[in-house]
Amino acid sequence: MKLAIADWIVLAGYLFVVLGIGIYFSRKNTSTEEYFVGGRRFRGWVIGLSLVGTSISSITFLAYPADAFKTDWLRYLPNLALLPAMLVAAFVFLPFFRRGNMTSAYEFLEMRYGPSIRVYGAIAFLVAQLVRLAMILWLLSLLIQEVTGVTPTTAIILGGLFVGLYTVIGGIDAVIWTDVLQTVILLLGGVVCLWVILEALPGGLSQVFDLAGQAGKFALAPWENGAPGETSWSFSLSEKTATMMLLIGLTNWLTEYSSNQNTVQRYCASQSTKEARRGLWVYLFTALPIWAFYMFLGTALWVFFQVYPDVQASAILQGEARAETLMPHFITAYLPAGVAGLVIAAALAAAMSSLDSSINSVTTVSVVDLYRRHLRPGQDDRHYLRVAWGIAVAVTVFMIGGALWLNGTETKTLQDTSTILVSLLGGGMLGLYLLGFFSQRGDARAAWCGIGCTLVFTGWTVLTNKGLLPDALSAPFDLYYTGLIGNLLMFAVGYLAASLWPASSSAPVTD
């Protein structure tokens, strides 16, 4: 891909502003309170937009349009469960984390169950985030290679060092404010793409609705028996119905807003519970339209390539090329000079906003939940701040090393590795938190029973997925529902075990 001078100017300007934000806030980071939660002074609208930037990664920019282009709006359906999840998060989860000036999501687990469960929750989060960091940086490097023509190794190192630099020196202040900027850039990039499409179509916006509507491209859920007609709303563990997709979405969003440090850290960084709750509403009413917009962009691209046939687009529709190549191809072939630079900046923003948040949250959990709590308690705050800087650097190095390793593997290996690790260690985390939020029964013993059963269950589904079990012993349900069933199992086993081992008088419980 050859960029015009105007494109390079736009890209350079974006990167300069991001780095400048990191340098500006580096002067304020004189304590762990500032470095981890920004002095707890952020307004709700800032928190909300930063949550949008964190949750909208390269997947949104590449996969949402690709899915809508190739199929319909099925991927969007689970997002509709965000509204009930936000209500639960705002009025149930949020007050727990705002109590007692918490910094980490896993401090609650020690208050409720004891230190061993806190360590488990922290380690499960760290493993999942480290895998995620390597994956997203690897995806980011593909775009860098396309734009600059550098080798994969150079692209990974350059991308990782840049994100690591402003995140390490700027702390949570830089992360939150760059996420706000990146959210705006991401939306602008998508708007520019849609504008180019609509200007090129003879019938403009109405043509998109007419052609796509006739082809069923706006369908939100699978059709009964796989053919146009009535949508399937049945409850089934063997097929992907609309009802089950909504339940999957609800499970995912409740997990995100009950046990994910990236989110809980935003709760803790807010001025007050009121501002934190306001941030959730800003997130809800910003993220849902943005996701819908990117789905619509994919639908508009389908109409565009119906009117203007294209070899690459045809290959994607026929399954001969990866759907995720759709947006890079459109940027390369159809956007004018200067505009392409803005859209590439949006794609970079999508990845960087996820990377910086994860680096900072991994650093926070490592210091707060493990190092300060168990390895070196009682040190002065300056010591922990220096350790935080060191861990942030180490996480950046690990991220780069992981991306380099992934670059030498097949994509299938990458997906399998991340799925197995995250499923095994993170399975049942929502169930563990719900047991703590809604019940005071049981202590660490009951929690470990639930965790153990969930690990065995998840391992069984992994073996089934790998085809390592005979049919008689394989899981008799669609493995897409592993997380949903695992969380129900965690809650049920933990609650029943609590009947055998009620919380002791010395066990930490919630108020």
UniProtKB/TrEMBL annotation:
Segments crossing the lipid bilayer: 6-25, 45-64, 76-97, 117-144, 150-169, 176-198, 241-259, 280-305, 331-351, 383-406, 418-438, 445-463, 479-498
Keywords: Cell membrane, Ion transport, Membrane, Sodium, Sodium transport, Transmembrane, Transmembrane helix, Transport
Molecular function terms, GO-annotated: symporter activity
Pfam hit, one: SSF
Membrane topology: Multi-pass membrane protein
A GO biological-process term: sodium ion transport
Gene Ontology CC entries for this record: plasma membrane
Subcellular location: Cell membrane
Family: Belongs to the sodium:solute symporter (SSF) (TC 2.A.21) family.
Name of the molecule in the record: Sodium/solute symporter
UniProt organism field: Alcanivorax sediminis
UniProt lineage: Bacteria, Pseudomonadati, Pseudomonadota, Gammaproteobacteria, Oceanospirillales
